[in-house]
Structures are given as structure tokens and as C-alpha cells.
Amino acid sequence: MDSTGTLFLPPGQSTIAPEVDALFNFILYTGIILFTIVVVGMAIFVVRYRRRGKEKPTTGSAQNLKLELAWTIIPTILVIIVFFWGFNIYLKMHVAPKDAFEITVTGQKWFWSFDYPSGASTVNDLVVPAGRPVKLLMSSKDVIHSFYVPDFRIKMDVLPNRYTMTWFEAPQPGEHNLFCAEYCGTSHSEMIGRVRVLGEREYAEWEQTSGSGGEGMSLEKYGEQLYTAKACVTCHRIDGVAHTGPSFLGIYGESHPLAAGGTAVVDENYIRESILEPQSKVVAGYQPVMPTYQGLLDNRQVDALIAFIKSLKK
Amino acid sequence: MVEAVSGNYLRQPGGIKSWLVTLDHKRIGILYLAGIMTFFIFGGLLAMLIRLELLTPGKELVDANTYNRIFTLHGAVMIFLFIIPSIPASLGNFVLPQMIGAKDVAFPRLNLTSWYIYIVGSLFALYSIVAGSIDTGWTFYTPYSTQSTTSVVSMTLGVFILGFSSILTGLNFIVTIHKLRAPGMTWYQMPLFVWALYATAVIQVLATPVLAITLVLLILERVFGIGIFDPAMGGDPVLYQHFFWFYSHPAVYIMILPGMGIISELISTFSHKKIFGYKAIAFSSLAIAFISFLVWGHHMFTSGQSELAAALFSFLTFLVGIPSGIKVFNWLATMYKGRISLETPMLYALSFLFLFSIGGLTGIFLGALAVDVHLHDTYFIVAHFHYVMMGGTLMAFLGGLHFWWPKMFGRLYSEYWGRIAVALVFIGFNLTFFTQFILGGRGMPRRYYTYPPEYQTLHDLSTVGSWILAAGFIITFAYLIHSLIAGRKASGNPWGSLTLEWTSPSPPPTENFVGTPRLTHGPYDYDTVQIERGQV
């Protein structure tokens, strides 16, 4: 397992990664050889046959069938090798092992949510056990997204009208970037999550606690945790600077003009409505782009977020 | 030889109006040149803004929505308004009839019409910028483009109109090449640039209508809510990708084939040697044109298309690479035992060989299915197509522009500044885009307004590269404009080239040739014809 990566590749952290990297490096080294032939040849000819003195007709030959055949057939053989090699690994990427652990992935503007067999769900934080194949069944709620984990060398588009599938097996515990690779609008570059690969025992512990709704935490504290965990942070800042959505700092109790005309006072009911039916009262100056959190948050979680927003005073 | 200085095509009575109603292919070529250069500068400024914004991982200059509009416009302007019309419509228009010994193209009025259609299409595209701009990316992928609140319709309508300009130019060139060759010029005596323009024209005529249909469907969906691509209305978004790339992949060859044609002319002229493998180069252009229609699915290896389809597209993609490789080796063999001189056009040709080889070889990574899965939609792709489109087509365009500049305007530019500019462009280009291969390989996705901090060093190097590149272009514009005013007068054949356009004075008379030109030798017979270079 290559854990340091090369100039062109990040560390490979899935079982498929070393196979992809081997092909990548084969093409790289073959390419360097071919490129050197062209460029060194070019340089030698420029120096050796530099024009000096008066014009004279040149006599070098203008065709040679054997040469033409050589530089047609040799590259053809090389690319056929690369074709079969690449196709072979591609098929492995598309056939998940039968015993794979299955997680449902939903992409929407601009976060990822994950539903686990245990009933747990997370946002932007994919937690998986090390050393077990994980199969991802993916779909989108709006436009096309693409699920991309560079360290695993996997990428698959996430479509609004059908399921797509990818799978991976990460042998080592660790944390990896998860990117959206298909352009999806304003906060495309912030549709970033992480994949946390846990050891067997840690994963079992996580599964135990993940279902819990922040028991033993104050609502405010739990809300602060959800603010990040449920990806509110992607669009709403808490430092007073407007982003894709308004900042939460000090908005509780304020009166805001609405895009559709009129004003709304930010109270508990307004916040609740804005989380569950975000399009109904959009604040003037912002695009109606927020997805609904209906079904993603239970009542206690909505309460917690309200408590958290109330606590942010100027 | 008739004294033609007063009768040359540039100096005709009638002032500006005579240009706007001109039927002279040379003047129309110059009109196109003015149009595409304007858009090149505009698209270039947008690129500089993109690079500047990416100097730091967070916000630098503009907000996310503005950034998304800037990269969309950069792509749309460079592809549809600059690079597709660039070589065929400007240099091709100017030089094609002269190369085959004709007085004009087959349909001069249609030729002028094409230019006006180009202008109207550009106005629609410009209108969309004023009317809120567009943020979909130049590919207009559905369902994002169906749902976007930006002015998608006027931009796609502009691209739709521009397509007709492209189709009509292609049609004109095909008929011209078939019907107007000078007596005695067989197909195998045509310069290779003409072969390349012919192959390009075939793609323009056959593929562009598919783009037009696709954009009409997109507009219908947006305006009338007819569900074709948007699943919310019962459509299929991947269908759009199939339609779009069915045109847009062959379009890549509309962009690169004419560039390859120019390189054949430059390498042979400046090596003063017969082109190696004439037929191999000519037929590889046709092979590329043909196979290019069958590889569109390689843009969609991660879109969920079937494994069988992916395998076929991957295989055909490798096949379309072979003819390009053949050309590179033939150009190299042409230089062998030549008498090589290194004026500015040749320096651009050598830059092309260097950069296009990298562009072509990195295509192999992307054609290989499993490796593409990792590299798709990352900066590796961005780097790859800039090496092909900019390192290939733009270098060839600049080489061709410097090559035919004395013929176009009868003036010589400063060779000294020309060489400095090539050096800056070459260094700046590699610094800007080679870093992006590394960025992409390491996982940096494209079209990102912000990025994780570990990518900053490479982004910064890339941005510095873009400044060097810009300096090279600014110098180029300066000395080219300067040459128009104060350049030395060019002789009829300053490079000692054997193709027909060099037998007329510079600039040529309106009718191109005095009488019907007679073919006394082939375009590359440097082994048998003693040719004196004019004063350089």
C-alpha cells in the first residue's frame, strides 16, 4: 500500500488505488519515453541541420513505408494494452463484492447525506469500517453532482432520476476528502465532506452512539454541533458576513425584508419554517436555493438549532 | 510581374463601407481576424481574473456567483467566439483560395453572410452578459441549465446562430476545394493546410447541426417547460450529455485539425524540405475527422453509462489518437536533414510540437477507463485540454498569423520582439498549465471557487505563469500593431516558400493572381526547385 503518494497522485488508500496507480505510472513512463524521443529528436535536428549560408535544395527522402508502419503499429499496440488494462480495472470498480456494507448517499445543493443500515444518518461525514467493502447507492435531489474521493481513486456522478453505484474498501483507518466533482452552482466548491474510516472497535462504538440525539447535551450545545454536522455552515456564517444565505449572528429578534415583499420577524416559528420550508419566506437579497430539511432533522434537532441561533448575539 | 502596390486588396476606394460590403475573401478573412482577436482579448482577461481569484484558497476578488459566471464566459467566449472560427474563418479564408490558385471562394456572398451571422451570434452572446450573464459552465449541462436563473437562453441562442456561420463557412470551403483548384492541381498537389481545412469543413457541416438541435431542445425546455432533459419534467439529463458531446467532441477536431495543417506548412517551409509522408498526413486528417464522430462517450465515463458503451468509447478514443501520433512523427522526419531556420513562425511550430505532444500523451491517461475515473472533472482535464487547444491550436494560429502576416499586410514585424514573445508565451504557458496536471492528479476538482489549502502552492505557481503568458501576448500585440505602421515592406515571398500564395506580391492584388496561375511544381518540392528567399 502506497501511503505517501507521488508527485502526480495523492496517497492511495483503497484496495483499488494501487491498481489504478500502476496503470497511471505505466502510461506516465511510456509517455515520458515517447515525449523524450520527439523532443530530443527535435532538438538534435534543429542544431544539426540549422540553415547556414545560401539556399540549396535539400535531398532528404520524403517517404519511407517501413518507418510509417513502425510509428503506426507500435503506438497502436501500446494503446491496446492500456485499453484492456484500464477496462479490466474499470469493471472491478463497477462490481461490488456481494457481502458489501451498503450505505445510501443523497447529494443535493450543497451537501451530502448518508443513511446507514443501522438507521443512523449523517451529513457531509461518511463513517465506514476499515477492511470491509462499502457499497454506495447514490441519487441526487436536484442537479447532477459527482461523488469523488481522490485517496480512493473513485468517482461517480450522482443523478436526479436514477441510482448510480460505486464501492470501495479502505484497509486502513484515516480521514479523506470527499469532493463534489460535477459543477452544481454557487457553493459547488463547498460541497466538501470527509470520509472517516474507523477501526472495527471504533466503528462499533460509533454505531452505538450515532443514533443518539445529543443526550446529555444542552440544546444550545447540540445545535452548535448540528450546525456543522448538518452542513448549515456551508451557506450560513456566524460572524455577520453574508454568504449564500444570511449570517446567523444576532438575527434572532430582528425584522428582515422579504424577497416577495413585506417583512418577517426572526422568531422561533420563522426559523422552524425556514428550515423545513425554506422557499416560503426568502429574505430579500438572497437566492431561493436552500433545500428543505424535512425528514433530515427530527423535532429535537430543530429545537436545538433554534436554541443555537438564539444564542448568537452581536 | 505587374506593379500591384496601388492595386492591392487593402487599398481599394470606398473607405470603411467598402469593407462592410466586401466580397473579397481576403478582406473577409481580415474582418474575421478583427472579430476573433477582440474576443481573444476579452476571454483572456476573464482567464486572468480566474487565476487571480485562485491565488488564495478563500475569497480574493469576487464572490462565488461572479466567479461561476466568469469561468462560464471564459469557456464560452474562447470556444465559440474565438477558437472554432479562429483558424478556418480568418487565416483559412485569407489563404485558402490563394493556396489553390483561385480568385475567391466558391460563394463570396455566402462568405460575407457567414461573417454577419458570426457578428449577430456574438451580439446575442454579449447581450446575455449584460442581461445577468450565465453560470452553467460552457457545456450548459442539464438539469442545472434548465433550472439556472441566469440568462441561459440568449447565450445558447447566440451559440445556435454562431453554428450557422460555421456550417456555411464549411460548405463554402468544401465546394471551393472541389471546384476552384488551379488547372493541373490534383488532390495530391494541394498544400496540407488545404487538406486539413477540408477535413475540418466536413465536420463543421455534419456535426454542427446536432449542436443546433440540442440547443433548440434546451431552449424549448426552458421557455415552454417541455420535458426533455430535466427529470423534474420527465426528461433525462444524461441524454443532453450524449447530444452535446456528439457535436462537441468532433468540435475539438474542428479546433485542432486546421492547426495541424498550419504546422505542416511551417515545418516544411522552415526546414526547407519536402514534407515527409504527405499522404500519411493528408489521410490522417480524414481519419481523425471520421473517427471523431464515434468517441463522444469518453466525456461520460463516470456518468453511469453502461460498461459496454464505456469500453467501446474508450477503444475508439485510443484509435483516434493514432493519426495524431503519425502526424507528429512525420513532422519530425521532415526536419531530418532539412535546412532549418528559426524565425518566429518556426518557433511557434516547435512550441506546438512540444506542447501538443504533452497534450496528446496526457489524453492516453484520460482514455484509459480506470484512470479517467480518478482524473475526470479535475484540473488534470483542464490542463489536458489547454495543452491541446492552447498549446496546440493557439500556437499554430500564432505561427500561421506570423507566417502569413507579411502576405496579409505587406509588412514585416520585428523578429527580435517576436522571439522574445514566443519565449515568454512558452515559459508562461508551461508554468500555468503543467502545474495543473499535478493539481488534478492530486485530486483538485475543476470549477472550484474555493479550495483546500494544501493546493495553494501549485495554484499560486499557475497564477504567476498566467502573468508571464499575458506579458508575451501584450508584446505580440504591440509589435504586430507597430509593424502595420512602421514595419519594413515585405517582399512577395519572404520565407522562400513554394505554395502558390507566395507567388503574388505582398499584399496581393484584389484578384489574387495576374491571370490564371500555372502550376510548375508541387507545394513542397524543395528537392528540385531552387527558390530564393525575398529580403527578410
Task: Give descriptors for this structure.
heterodimer; A: 314 residues; alpha+beta; Helix Hairpins; Immunoglobulin-like; five-stranded mixed β-sheet; 20% strand; B: 536 residues; mainly alpha; Cytochrome C Oxidase, Chain A; two-stranded antiparallel ribbon; 15 helices
Please, could you describe this protein's structure?
The complex is a heterodimer of chains A (about 325) and B (about 525). Helices cover about 35% and strands about 20% of the residues of chain A. With about 325 residues, chain A is of the alpha+beta class. Chain A has three domains: about 1-45 and about 65-95, Helix Hairpins, CATH 1.10.287; about 100-210, Immunoglobulin-like (Sandwich), CATH 2.60.40; about 220-310, Cytochrome c-like domain (Cytochrome Bc1 Complex, Chain D, domain 2). In chain A, a hairpin with a 4-residue loop joins strand 6 and strand 7 (about 155-160). In chain A, about 35% of the residues are buried. Chain B is mostly helical and about 525 residues long. Chain B is about 65% helix and about 0% strand. Residues about 1-5 of chain B have low confidence and may be disordered.
